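Attaching the record inline, Q. Sequence:
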Amino acid sequence: MTALLGAWCVAAAVQATPPERVTIGAARVLVSDVVRSAPTEAGSVDLGPSPAVGASRLIDRASIVRALREHGVRDLPEVPEAVRVVRRSRTLSASEIERMTRERLAAEGLPRHAELTGVRSSRGLEVADGWDAVNVELPRLPRRTGPFSTTALLTFRVGTEVLGRASVQVDLSLPAAAAQPDVARGGPLTLVVRQGLVEVRIGATASADADVGERLQVVLHPSGRVLRARLLDRDTALAEETP
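Structure, as predicted:
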């Protein structure tokens, strides 16, 4: 009886021991992240996605062993009973987010000849560390003049993975030129028609005011046929229908 009680106490103590905590900076968890002694073949086995920032993921021994065997690894390394994985993160202050927004807007350029007059972030952001790109998106600006406030979206990425996003208030000044469309109704255009590897260019006229990126109807010369197209720049539109 005493021996059984002692064994039970030892087992309970083992179960009560918290799992090792591992912090990683990648989007996927590999065996090498949670098994330090894993050889190269075993270490490259994928154990699934990393947890979101602020969360954790518990990976037990059975899951690791199953993944190794599914990948044909027969000589199993010493595998822990469980490992708790967390994603490495970085906390950005509101002032850092404002600075990054200004830098990206300056690098990417403002549409409609706008001038940046202010950037305001209401709070900081905890984001997964390791981003290799930051970009900022603005909604389409109105055709008007004077002061205008809107919300920009600052996005942190590594490859195609989005690590985090922050909404930032942006103040702009729109000059008189901002009230004018990129192409006015009746303005001349070159319509590009693509069919497979063949590209044809046809003279056309805009049937409505439009800005770059918008869709509009164009009138072909000399047939007068009307087609839908997307404005690529001030002089060119891409056909979305076949003439």
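The chain has three domains: 2-87, 91-179, 188-239. The first strand starts at residue 20 and ends at 24.

More tomorrow.
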